[in-house]
Design a protein that fits this description.
Helix content is 27%, strand content 16%. By secondary structure, the protein is an alpha+beta fold. Among the domains are: 52 residues, no CATH class; 39 residues, no CATH class. Strands 1-2 form a two-stranded antiparallel ribbon. It has a two-stranded antiparallel sheet with strand order 3-4. The longest helix has 11 residues.
Amino acid sequence: TDQTKPTFVEPIDFESYILKNKTLIQNDPQRELLLYPPDDVSHVVLPRKFRTVHPNIPHSAEAKECCLFVRECLKSYTSNWTLIHYKYSAYSGSYLELPKILKSDELKDEVYEVDTDADQLDEEMSPKHDGVTKQGYLMKGPEVGNDRMFVNIGSKSFKRRYCYLR
């Protein structure tokens, strides 16, 4: 069988891309999504504090005789700590941290006026409790914000609708 080796793709250097395409990004309507605050990431090197008087790690001459894995382990115990601090991490998060809305298991049946009988519709519209109920025709006219409001009052541009008010 003949197998081909996958091609290695270099990741994009984000900082150099921003510098090369600065004018394009500044004119982009969604530039807030592309740019990140320059003061967001800070790099701090903390010196390692040793808690013992005598180091329990061998000197560098003895460590050079060891294999590479042991040397890297020793280096991790003796090197300074590197801390990356994200200033705006409190304002970020993942999709999983969003509040969860519980879905209702019980869905109501949708009933349309076209599907119901006229008698059933009248029963639903009739008052079920004691209270003031008004019913009758309502005249719907043009909007009052119009400059020609008084002209419309004299004309017959009103619509007549039968309504129930509870």
